[in-house]
Amino acid sequence: MTALWIAHVHVIDAEAYGRYAKAAGPAIAAHGGVFLARGGRYRQMEGGDRSRNVVARFPSLEAAVACYESREYQAALEHAKGAAERDLVIVEETPPASE
């Protein structure tokens, strides 16, 4: 079952967060992650607003968690600390309904 990595981000320091994004991309790809949305247009309908929204699909919940816990991603994440306020959740996708 595939899984989605959903992040809502408010960037405080664009330069430092850019270093995070540059390093995080390869770590995500190495674990089978593919970006579905990455900072594009959005409309906040409920809840708190964060100006950057990112969605990546992974082959499984386990692959997404392994990515987050990986040495490479944790090294990238050091650049985001203090550079952004972030919420991140990993959720397993619902399979398509059978017809």
Automatic annotation (TrEMBL):
<dbReference type="InterPro" id="IPR011008">
    <property type="entry name" value="Dimeric_a/b-barrel"/>
</dbReference>
<feature type="domain" description="DUF1330">
    <location>
        <begin position="2"/>
        <end position="93"/>
    </location>
</feature>
<dbReference type="Pfam" id="PF07045">
    <property type="entry name" value="DUF1330"/>
</dbReference>
<dbReference type="InterPro" id="IPR010753">
    <property type="entry name" value="DUF1330"/>
</dbReference>
<protein>
    <submittedName>
        <fullName>DUF1330 domain-containing protein</fullName>
    </submittedName>
</protein>
